């Protein structure tokens, strides 16, 4: 058992069932769970119709739930202080549900909007996914609720990938329309559709997903996730401005999305763009999509050195061309590489959140120390670490 992963191995079930029972005065009908994720490569590609390659973490959100016959959703989180939150499903779309309740009630609402026979529920949640670290605690919460709804109301959607994709779509709709976060669908897809021991290649052009074996153990490797604990103010407009820049560039190039720009013809495409900043943004997106393909090929060929090189090239591109890195992410990446990581990069939208390094399993501690020391030297806040030695499985009922 690794120190940094301790929380993951403690069973939250007893506390969760106790809290459920004392809060709602009855036993839950069951327990369901869903993983957080880390994206291996393919950043800011989703809204460009591109590719990304996330992997489910072993850290998870667990929900204890019981069905109701009315439309009330009552919920409590062990991780957030506060009273029980109550929301009526009939009012979710119109009332402006705020806070964490939006993710929970939003999923039940979206499933109902999709024509599924879903009613209210009592729910208690707890999670080992750090909140706001870019490891998608929000999608883990949504997917655990979707899995619970599947069990409580007998939807039968967890049984195959098409059903899971439908649950993921409802989760994304909840996040976009009820929680008001304009995210692209990667997080929900991997939380519901991942396969243990695999990364998930997602294609945003057609919504398809492909399993890519990720056998870290066989190569004596692990992923070290560094939660920089940094969140930078004034970043909201940055995401929107990147998105708009990509849309404008696609329009100027006469393509529906930047996915349609052939990497072989990139220089010619760039020459048609007048603005230097736009050229850099386009270069990131087009080369990043190519790097996702390269990474999948390298994983299939067992060429882990190449995977590491692609991680580094991705980070450079995000830092220099897309300009979404920050001092904490750059420090984490540089320090991991100095300690001998095969590759390292920022992961997620940027401006804080987490970095991921591909490291030899026997170098985890020295890499962690190197990052910790670099943060101290740089006067940065203390980072947190999470180790992934085995790609996690998807959302589902808690068994055993
Ligand atoms: P990330 O998904 O990167 O962790 P987000 O800002 O997208 O960050 O989502 C974090 C939000 O999700 C929290 O502020 C909270 O509203 C909700 N959330 C996640 N996990 C939990 C939990 N265990 N209990 C209550 N709310 C949660
Ligand atoms: Mg999120």
Automatic annotation (TrEMBL):
Keywords: ATP-binding, Carbohydrate metabolism, Galactose metabolism, Kinase, Nucleotide-binding, Transferase
Domain GHMP kinase C-terminal span(s) in chain numbering: 296-372
Xref: SUPFAM superfamilies: GHMP Kinase, C-terminal domain, Ribosomal protein S5 domain 2-like
Presence of keyword ATP-binding: yes
Family annotation (InterPro entries): Galactokinase (IPR000705), Galactokinase_CS (IPR019741), GalKase_N (IPR019539), GHMP_kinase_C_dom (IPR013750), GHMP_kinase_C_sf (IPR036554), GHMP_kinase_N_dom (IPR006204), GHMP_knse_ATP-bd_CS (IPR006203), Mevalonate/galactokinase (IPR006206)
Domain GHMP kinase N-terminal: 103-192
Pfam family, one: GalKase_gal_bdg
Domain (Galactokinase N-terminal) ranges: 19-67
EC number(s) per entry: 2.7.1.6
PANTHER family from the UniProt entry: GALACTOKINASE-RELATED, MEVALONATE KINASE/GALACTOKINASE
Family that this chain belongs to: Belongs to the GHMP kinase family. GalK subfamily.
Alphabetized NCBIfam families for the sequence: gal_kin
Protein name in the entry: Galactokinase
Source organism: Ornithinimicrobium pekingense
